[in-house]
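Q: What structure does this chain adopt?
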Amino acid sequence: MPRQKIIINLAPADIRKEGSSYDLAIAIGILAASNQLPIETIQQYIFLGELSLDGKVHPIKGALPIATQSKTDGFNGMILPAVNAEEAAIVSGIKVYGIRTLDEVIRFIKGKLQIEATQINIAEKFEQLLNSYELDFAEVRGQENIKRALEIAAAGGHNVILIGPPGAGKTMLAKRLPTILPPLTIDESLETTKIHSVSGKLPSSTSLLTIRPFRSPHHTVSDVALVGGGANPQPGEISLAHNGVLFLDELPEFKRSVLEVMRQPLEARSITISRSRFSVDYPASFMLIAAMNPCPCGYYNHPIRRCICKQHVVQKYISKISGPLLDRIDIHIEVTPVEFNELTESRPSEKSEVVRKRVIKARKIQEQRFKKYPNIHSNAQMRSRNIQEICIIDENGRNLLKKAMERLNLSARAYDRILKVARTIADLEGSVEILNQHLAEAIHFRSLDRENWSG
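A:
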């Protein structure tokens, strides 16, 4: 260390710097400025790492997006902590060297130490981890109508709300939804991994997320924790659930303000966090699955147990969920307790793998349908104009839908949701047209609209 005053300039000055990722770069810069290392050599590399007092290099956040930008900027390689090497090596076209101490870096730059560049076979790694789910639909006894609803939701990317008494299996079913979703593509996997890497939530055991994320924040979560933000903006739960599932259990227990800030990202599938000097866009294309009790005691509409809540109490409880938010949830389904004979039935239930094959087949139909629409990949993402072009129904279908709209007092947004769900049901059956039975089943999934549930 030079025994003189040292000035370190982290340019550009108008961008706030935070974290310890600059430690290694600063140390190498000091050694190069004092002619202890060749400047022309270090200019070829990006240096990242946190230095401890004994010279060890500790892990950092965001290695994957930094590697992507380093490749774009034309650097030959990256020198970073060995723990982060596999994550950065996912980006092809740039050499990644994993190191453990400052001494290793110095000897490598001077040519006194040979370090093999880390290489990752993305396709092989992806295949190995693709089906590493611990849960399966086969473990759920009964609840065939709920499984059907979740299959439809997975096939079209629709949002779902499950409403029913305690112990009916709402959480158990929700946790198994990712097991029937189509596998992540490599592009989706990279995009999801970047978000988790930036936020420091990437598991140390893996460098690439190959299964769809499942986020389940507690109902005490704050607005910022859910949608992202802070003094130095970070992705929130809705972005961490990107390309996966966001599960909100006990939905009415969430603060009203927390739920309302989610309305816009549900439509836009992204969130913009603005500050006085800059703004940040985070992706938020997730499936929302919510669960709730029908009333404070939990037994309203229960087939056996008696509800002790007054009618106005039930209405007040349901009213905690705003109409606009409910309208953004495509499928409303009532969950009833499983009967004893279903629990003890020896017949095996359908495995997630079997259901997923049907879901993938329906998604492929949608991929072909939306080829000319770059930002639409599933039925749930259709806009009003797309619905008019694609979800065409005959006169009988229109009459059926009109009666349902009048009887259930549904909004215009709910009308669009019914058509989207009906289109997905038709895709699952391989039908080109939306038939009356598809519409009828889709209407059934709007029966829990707030105005009608406790009326």
